[in-house]
């Protein structure tokens, strides 16, 4: 249905009734209320009725964001915007505006025209004039009021406008604001999704950083362990060399002690002999041997003083500990390590 066809149908009472039926919502059975939404099956609903239809308690709705068109039972799938994601049928809204203008102007020329059915049977009344219905809108003060207030009351000098036109204009404005808000909500949801993705990325990156840090310290542990084994090997090597030297010296001492002991036994036996001639035959040689052995024992090789000490293997780790305690993320650590190495070489 286009605008020209709608205008041609306004020429007779029967056409008016037919047009009103075509402009009636299949849910509330009243004329469509702005904004009118068009379903994928090309059938129309009031947005309020579409929202009611989308309610979880409605029998037409059967899963998630899906409900059935009340006219043809077509399955309508909604996106995350819900009913506000459906497209408005501006053509039907324009036809309704033409129809209402014809109704208000009485251009149909017949008293059998069907009036527009009100959404509520109880209309609000003016507080100043209790018998007067609120039927006009004060543009100056931005509030609805009655005709008596315009003629005799506090709004007599104000600019007024028909209630229906302001009603439609503000409903359209609110609908546009809702559409804008829905768009903003979509952007906010996208930002929330980005924040969630960023949180996940931070967690993954932190886990990777922790793993790399653990690998670095494992490398440090391995390097320290390797260096410790090298230093331990140096200590063990010097220990073995000193012990070998001492044992060799001890063997020489033992050999000389054994020879001196045997010579001592021989000299004592010579002293025990009773014959002077026998003693004198052996005494000269024994005296010379005894003196030589005693003299050579005094000049025996001995270890240097402090030979047994191992103090020179003391390791000073204070500087390294200080450097490790200042270890941090960044590029400054390399310079600090280089400075430490230079000081160690000096």
Automatic annotation (TrEMBL):
EC number(s) stated in the UniProt entry for this protein: 2.3.2.27
Entry-linked SUPFAM superfamilies: B-box zinc-binding domain, RING/U-box
UniProt name for this protein: RING-type E3 ubiquitin transferase
Domain annotation B box-type: ranges: 121-163
UniProt lineage: Eukaryota, Metazoa, Chordata, Craniata, Vertebrata
Any one GO biological process: regulation of microtubule cytoskeleton organization
Pfam families: zf-B_box (PF00643), zf-RING_UBOX (PF13445)
Disordered, as annotated region: 103-124, 325-346
Primary location group: cytoplasm
Residue ranges constituting the RING-type domain according to the UniProt record: 25-73
Organism field: Cyprinus carpio carpio
PROSITE patterns on file: COS, ZF_BBOX, ZF_RING_1, ZF_RING_2
Cellular localisation: Cytoplasm; Nucleus
Keywords assigned by UniProt, alphabetized: Coiled coil, Cytoplasm, Metal-binding, Muscle protein, Nucleus, Transferase, Ubl conjugation pathway, Zinc, Zinc-finger
A GO molecular function held by the record: ubiquitin protein ligase activity
GO cellular component: cytoplasm; nucleus
């Amino acid at each position: 249905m286009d605008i020209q066809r709608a205008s041609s149908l306004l020429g007779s009472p029967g056409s008016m009734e037919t047009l009103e039926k075509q402009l009636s919502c299949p849910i509330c059975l009243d004329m469509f209320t702005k904004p009118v939404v068009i379903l994928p099956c090309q059938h129309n609903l009031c947005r309020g009725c579409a929202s009611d239809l989308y309610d979880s308690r409605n029998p037409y709705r059967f899963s998630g964001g899906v409900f059935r068109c009340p006219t043809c039972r077509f399955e309508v799938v909604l996106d995350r915007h819900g009913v506000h994601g459906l497209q408005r049928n501006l053509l039907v809204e324009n036809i309704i505006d033409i129809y209402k203008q014809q109704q208000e102007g009485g251009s149909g020329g017949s008293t059998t025209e069907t009036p527009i059915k009100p959404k509520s049977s109880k209309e609000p009344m003016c507080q100043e004039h209790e018998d007067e219905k609120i039927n006009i809108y004060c543009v100056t003060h931005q509030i609805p009021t009655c005709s008596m207030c315009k003629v005799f009351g506090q709004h007599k000098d104000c600019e007024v406008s028909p209630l229906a036109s302001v009603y439609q204009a503000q409903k359209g404005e609110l609908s546009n604001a809702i559409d804008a808000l829905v768009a903003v909500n979509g952007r906010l949801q996208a930002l929330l999704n980005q924040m969630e993705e960023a949180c996940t990325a931070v967690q993954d990156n932190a886990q990777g950083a922790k793993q790399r840090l653990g690998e670095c310290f494992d490398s440090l542990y391995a390097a320290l362990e390797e260096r410790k084994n090298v230093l331990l090997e140096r200590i063990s090597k010097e220990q073995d060399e000193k012990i070998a030297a001492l044992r060799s010296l001890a063997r020489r001492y033992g050999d000389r002690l054994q020879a001196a002991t045997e010579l001592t036994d021989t000299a004592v036996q010579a002293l025990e002999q009773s014959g002077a001639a026998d003693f004198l035959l052996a005494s000269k040689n024994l005296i010379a041997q005894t003196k030589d052995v005693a003299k050579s024992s005094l000049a025996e090789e001995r270890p240097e003083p402090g030979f047994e000490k191992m103090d020179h293997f003391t390791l000073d780790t204070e500087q390294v500990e200080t450097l490790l305690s200042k270890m941090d993320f960044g590029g400054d650590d390399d310079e600090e390590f280089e400075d430490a190495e230079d000081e160690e070489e000096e």
